[in-house]
């Protein structure tokens, strides 16, 4: 392929107004602190941060994962399911087209449902979890937008809301997988349908399965949040790692992948 997998130049994120006072809600204050550290860490990994300002409120204004799928110079926008999503999409379109030179494709099929938290891109192919928020028509829209990559719908196990809560990429061709019964069932389906072969890294805590691999470094949650999985990362990963507290933000998202759109500028 003519691009480097998992290497990015920019991170598109939601802007939080610095002057905004901390509230009397401890969870929101913790979420703000965790988000600030998340952005600092992305900068340290040589990503240029582009902040998108919207009228949405924190933390809804920083959860970008479901609102767009970005890959290979294209941004695919699913049909918005709320006025907040529509506001953020409008702001994103301007940034992605004008600042980052991306082609924007909007899903036109009224039957198509697609959420980025159900879309796993391995660097070689797409898997789309068929859930309440993503359906076969949504997977077809994704396949049309990115015809150079195989795209496979995966039926999720009962009780699973988002595929990427249970799966993410922990490195080149390394699938990070939760050890739960549901995750094991879905892994069998992925392995059966996959066009390519992947190593698997199985982590005991479900909350550890969503990590972020960017520019040669794996970002995963901190030892106090995932003590057993932290040991697995230490033992199995032989390249750069960084850990981060994400407990408050995890309550409103599928995990570490949710708060930025990683972009490689064409």
Automatic annotation (TrEMBL):
SUPFAM superfamilies: Pentein. GO terms for biological process: arginine metabolic process; citrulline metabolic process; positive regulation of nitric oxide biosynthetic process. The keyword Hydrolase applies. Keywords: Hydrolase. One of its GO terms (molecular function) is dimethylargininase activity. It comes from the Eukaryota. The active site is at 162 (proton donor), 259 (nucleophile). Belongs to the DDAH family. This is (African queen) hypothetical protein. It comes from Danaus chrysippus.
């Amino acid at each position: 392929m003519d691009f480097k997998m998992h290497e990015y130049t920019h991170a598109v994120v939601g802007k939080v107004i610095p002057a905004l006072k901390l509230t009397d809600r401890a969870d929101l204050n913790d979420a703000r602190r965790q988000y600030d550290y998340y952005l600092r860490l992305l900068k340290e990994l040589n990503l240029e941060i582009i902040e998108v300002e919207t009228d949405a409120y924190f933390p809804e204004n920083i959860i970008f994962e479901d609102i767009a799928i970005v890959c290979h110079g294209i941004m695919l926008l699913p049909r918005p399911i709320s006025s907040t999503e529509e506001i953020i999409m409008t702001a994103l379109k301007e940034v992605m087209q004008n600042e980052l030179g991306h082609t924007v494709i909007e899903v036109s099929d009224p039957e198509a449902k697609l959420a980025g938290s159900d879309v796993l891109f391995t660097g070689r192919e797409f898997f789309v979890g068929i859930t309440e928020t993503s359906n076969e028509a949504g997977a077809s829209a994704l396949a049309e937008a990115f015809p150079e990559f195989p795209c496979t719908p995966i039926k999720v196990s009962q009780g699973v809301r988002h595929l990427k809560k249970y799966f993410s990429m922990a490195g080149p061709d390394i699938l990070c997988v939760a050890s739960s019964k549901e995750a094991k069932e879905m892994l069998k389906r992925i392995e059966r349908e996959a066009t390519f072969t992947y190593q698997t890294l199985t982590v005991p805590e479900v909350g550890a399965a969503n990590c972020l691999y960017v520019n040669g470094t794996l970002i995963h949650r901190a030892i106090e949040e995932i003590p057993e999985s932290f040991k697995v990362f230490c033992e199995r990963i032989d390249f750069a790692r960084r850990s981060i507290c994400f407990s408050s933000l995890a309550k409103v998202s599928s995990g570490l992948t949710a708060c930025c759109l990683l972009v490689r500028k064409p």
